[in-house]
Amino acid sequence: MKKIISGKVREVYDLEDGRMVIVTTDRISAFDVILPTMITDKGKVLNALSNFWFDYTGDIVKNHMISSNLKDMPEEFQKPEYEGRTILVKKLKMIPYEVIVRGYMFGSMYEAYKKGEPFLGKKFTKEYQQAEKLEEPIVTPSTKAAEGHDINVTLDYMKKDLGEELGSKIEKTAVAIYKKCYDHAFKNGIIIADTKFEFGLDENGELVLADEVLTPDSSRFWNKAEYTVGTSPKSYDKQFVRDWLKDNNLAGDPLIKSIPADVVAKTAEIYRECQTLICGN
User: Fold this and answer.
1) Which residues contact 53 (CB under 8 A, 6 or more apart)?
2) pTM score > 0.90 for this model?
3) What's the rounded mean pLDDT across residues 16-39?
4) In angstroms, how far apart are the furthest CA atoms of the chain?
5) 46 and 67 Cβ atoms separated by less than 8 Å
6) Helix, strand, coil percentages in the chain from 3-state DSSP, rounded to 5
7) Strand locations in 119-264 (E)
């Protein structure tokens, strides 16, 4: 067994038998800086949400989950500190794109729209306000950069690179997952404005959903009760931390020493509320 990834949030271990162990930590990053203070139980919340969605979307596409039971994992992980934040998964041939599904006119897409420009090849004929729901969700991939920022590309670019058949299958699968999960979240008080998925291919060449699914770290979640078209809705995510950093002129500062306890507590509360609304008690 060897550690092959130590990311902003996750630690990934290769068991070298076709399986991997993924540990979701309580680390939090903002403005491309991993912050020095942990957010209590954030990793458990992200893990619980992903596991819920993997199960919920199993009728649409296979996923990489094998087990979340520590007893099924190597002895090194059968310890209390790994409980609730660790999964055993199938190792895949990962597709080198993040597949972003956007359901609302927001962010960089809205900025392009206001200028009358296409957004990654997509033209809009209908008039939209900020944060208004699109007639249909759209897929806008990005390349997964080993270093630096990912690069947004058009859907046609991804299809030409991967082949029309696989590219179209990824597009249809991503939209189907988004729509089903959107409906569940909406009924429970959360609007999924946009999200990103990652896919891989198994040993038979079949498409498999991987990484994390529909967490506040990989998605834009809005409070349905507070949502208003034409505004910039508050998110169920690390925006509270980002706002604190900006207010204190610490955004992007790699030398930041700590985050105040009240900011940590409020952020942890937001993550837990998101989990409760989606997964239930």
Assistant:
1) 181, 213, 214
2) yes
3) 95
4) 57
5) no
6) 35, 25, 40
7) 133-143, 151-152, 190-201, 207-210, 219-223
Cα–Cα distance for residue pair 13/76, rounded to 1 Å: 11
Q: How far apart (Å, rounded) are the C-alpha atoms in residues 255 and 202?
A: 42
Tell me the one-letter amino acid at 245.
Answer: L
* Burial (0-12, 13-18, 19+ Cβ within 10 Å), 149: exposed
Tens digit of pLDDT for each residue in 191-216?
A: 999 999 999 999 999 999 999 999 99
Q: Could you give the CA distance from residue 175 to residue 251 in angstroms, rounded to a whole number?
A: 33
Q: H/E element holding 187? A: helix 164-187
- Yes or no: say if 67 and 73 are a contact pair by the CB < 8 Å rule: yes
What angle is formed at CA 78 by the lines to CA 77 and CA 83, rounded to 5 degrees?
A: 85
Tens-place pLDDT, residues 42-100 = 999 999 999 999 999 999 999 999 999 999 999 999 999 999 999 999 999 999 999 99
Helix axes 155-162, 164-187, angle to 10 degrees: 130
Nearest of 88, 16, 4, 17 to residue 51 by alpha carbon: 88
Give SS3 for 222.
Answer: strand
The Cα–Cα gap between 124 and 83 comes to 47
Residue type, 28: I
